[in-house]
Amino acid sequence: MQLYYENIDNTLIVKLQGELDHHVAEKIRVELDEMISNKRSRNLIFNLKELNFMDSSGIGVIIGRYKNINKFGGKVAVIEVSEKVDKIFNLAGLYRIIDKYKNQKDALKCM
Amino acid sequence: MEYKNYMKLEFHSKSQNEAFARVVVAAFAAQLDPTIEEISDIKTAVSEAVTNAIIHGYDDKNELVTIICRINDNELEIIVEDKGKGIEDIGKAREPLYTSKPELERSGMGFTVMETFMDTVEVNSEMGKGTKISMTKKFKSLDED
């Protein structure tokens, strides 16, 4: 699992590449929290285009980051969600707290 | 009862084997000519069951997880078994959002994912003896044959 970062204004954009399961969850959690804290990011956008697999461990990671960002009034969004990842997001009811946008441009407009 | 095909896999309860386990089961299921969505469903359900065995069954201790797969007509049966501590209250464990380890940022959605992505999920568990999760899924693509 690889993470690629981009910082635009006060929004951190993270591209997740690979498979998000229990094995990598802890490492990803620590790395994301460090980056959010270093960049003092208010909002967070996950680019999921290259996320090939996600199970309920991934749901835990996403909800955990949402809680941290939400505490300080920020927003969390996802973009370029594949069909299989969309299925997990729907099942977990994640779209009640996290908005989905087609691309980065649309998401940034709503941050 | 006679099965068309059978396989058994045994591996250490290490988290790096989660990806290994789901890929092996997906490869075994390939002979049923599954759709991309069906393969994705199988991989996710196996990942949940194996993760449960590692985190909850064995509390991250290094033991053995066994997977048995049987194919009968267009149905795949997957059994994921550990000899760990067992589940105290299966009903509660299956409730969406319930987790016995909230400190680990677990979502509590493991069984819900298995139930949604598979046709049937049966859980047998005995305290101190272990847990056995049996799941089945019928593959649609071979239905027309």
Descriptive report:
The complex is a heterodimer of chains A (111) and B (145). By secondary structure, chain A is an alpha/beta fold. Chain A has helices spanning 22-39, 56-71, 83-91, 104-109, and strands spanning 2-8, 11-20, 43-47, 51-54, 76-79, 99-101. Chain A has one domain: 2-Layer Sandwich (Transcription Regulator spoIIAA), CATH 3.30.750. In chain A, helix 3 links the parallel strand 5 and strand 6 (99-101). Chain A is globular and about 30 Å long. Chain B is 33% helix and 28% strand. Chain B is built from 4 helices and 5 strands. Chain A binds chain B through residues 19, 21-23, 25, 29, 53-57, 59-61, 63-64, 83-84, 87-88, 91-92, and chain B through 15-16, 18-19, 22, 36-37, 40, 43-44, 47-48, 51, 54-55, 104-110, 112-113, 116.
Number of discrete helical segments of chain A: 4
Order of helices and strands of chain B: EHHEEHHEE
Count of domains of chain A: 1
Which chains have the largest interface?
Answer: A-B, 22 and 25 residues
Count of helical stretches of chain B: 4
Task: Determine the structural class of chain A based on helices, strands and strand pairing.
Answer: alpha/beta
Which topology of chain B does CATH recognise? Heat Shock Protein 90
What is the share of helical residues of chain A? 40-55%
SSE arrangement:
The complex is a heterodimer of chains A (111) and B (145).
Chain A: E1 2-8, E2 11-20, H1 22-39, E3 43-47, E4 51-54, H2 56-71, E5 76-79, H3 83-91, E6 99-101, H4 104-109
Parallel strand pairs in A: 2-3, 2-4, 3-5, 5-6
Antiparallel strand pairs in A: 1-2
Chain B: E1 5-12, H1 17-29, H2 36-57, E2 64-72, E3 75-82, H3 90-94, H4 110-117, E4 120-126, E5 130-138
Antiparallel strand pairs in B: 1-2, 2-3, 3-5, 4-5
